[in-house]
Specification:
Elements (H helix, E strand, L loop, with lengths): L3 H14 L4 H12 L6 H12 L20 H13 L5 H8 L3 H11 L16 H20 L7 E10 L31 E9 L2 E8 L7 H18 L1 H6 L3 E3 L4 H4 L1 H9 L4 E2 L10 H14 L7 H13 L3 H20 L14
Parallel strand pairs: 1-4, 4-5
Antiparallel strand pairs: 1-2, 2-3
Helix pairs in contact: 1-2, 1-3, 2-3, 4-6, 7-14, 12-13
């Protein structure tokens, strides 16, 4: 059975044989088919074709790529090209493979399970030796946890960070729901405040133990850090009497110059404070960096405080409001991160989804 359009083209062919003009043909078709009639341009084009001797009333075959481009051969072809250069655009892959862009997109997303992402910014491109060191540190700590399930109960971790008087909210934080007719929210471009304060935080799985606000203009050097550790010991004695009595607590800090200074190491050894080793360039394995500081700073973003003292007070309030459940989850994630680092040969773990392509 002919389609509606093919039927009209057959009638155009018949009317040309009757000697009708193009205008007469269009008028007759309009009279019969009404709103379903071909357009005047289409009628005149087909009329001309039949007058020139065309016999077929069907559509001309379409040139270009075949309609079914998602064949196993094409999937493999796209996969090979992407493996060679993962920065190619869909348009470039389409031109290289002679496959239409929509089929390339479907092959990449549906068949290969791929998506285009930006490169992950990491602290450093690690050498094989640095990766091995990360693995060894993780293995040693995981062995301690296996031998002593309460190992993390005795770990006190710390780090320093800057707290800004004003830090603009992120683009994601400013997202909001809007209806089709409601206006889109707008915000002015803002810069980070130049006024800031440095905070040193010590916490364990039970809560924050000590917060030190570094005086303006003071550098956290070995002398200052030793003084901070002296205050920390007093806080441990008062807030963790069980750990103080048993001398069971372990200090975890990163490899900042002040932390690794010889005088600091002697101070810790003199006071029988063991240190949990932390691999260099590894913020992804530091609880302050992957949990505590992002949590605090996210809550402060977008708020303009009247003074540095005001932001200090708010940051301190936020630190004290962190629940023990949050901290237990943090230490659980710390263990999981070490396991992932070990299993991945020391590579950075954040933002990674291992792909088979």
């Amino acid at each position: 059975m002919l389609s509606a359009n093919a039927e009209q083209r057959a009638n155009i062919k018949f009317l040309t044989k009757l000697g009708k003009s193009a205008t007469e043909t269009y008028n007759l078709l309009t009279e019969v088919y009404g709103d379903q009639c071909l357009s005047r341009t289409q009628v005149f084009e087909w009329f001309k074709k039949f007058m020139e001797g065309r016999k077929n009333v069907g559509n001309d075959p379409k040139s270009g790529r075949p309609p079914t481009a998602k064949t196993p051969e094409n999937v493999e072809k796209v996969a090979r090209i992407v493996r060679r250069d993962r920065r190619l655009s869909i348009r470039a892959i389409s031109e290289l493979t002679n496959i239409n862009k929509e089929s390339v997109r479907q092959i990449l997303h549906d068949d290969l399970g791929m998506k285009k992402v930006c490169a992950k910014v990491v602290p450093k491109i690690l050498t094989p030796q640095q990766k091995e060191h990360r693995v060894n540190c993780c293995v040693d700590t995981l062995e301690n946890i296996e031998n002593d399930p309460d190992f993390f109960q005795n770990v006190i971790t710390c780090d320093e960070t800057w707290i800004l008087q004003y830090d603009p909210e992120t683009k994601r934080q400013s997202m909001h729901w809007k209806s089709p007719k409601s206006p889109r929210k707008k915000k002015a471009r803002m810069s980070k405040s130049k006024f800031k304060a440095m905070m040193i935080v010590f916490f364990d799985i039970r809560g924050v133990i000590y917060i030190d606000w570094v005086p303006e203009g003071q550098t956290v050097n070995q002398v200052y850090y030793k003084n901070v550790l002296t205050y920390l010991r007093e806080r441990v004695r008062r807030r963790r009497p069980d750990m103080w009595k048993n001398a069971s607590w372990v200090l975890h800090h990163d490899n900042a110059p002040a932390h690794n200074a010889l005088s600091v190491k002697r101070y810790l050894a003199k006071n029988n404070i063991p240190v949990m080793e932390h691999p260099p360039y590894s913020p992804d394995l530091a609880p302050c960096d992957f949990f505590l500081f992002p949590k605090i700073k996210s809550a402060l973003k977008g708020t303009r405080f009247e003074s540095v003292d005001a932001v200090k007070a708010k940051a301190t309030q936020l630190l004290k409001s962190i629940t023990q459940d949050d901290l237990q989850h943090c230490f659980q994630q710390w263990k999981i991160r070490m396991e992932r680092c070990r299993d991945r040969g020391g590579d950075y773990i954040e933002g990674d989804n291992i792909s088979t392509v």
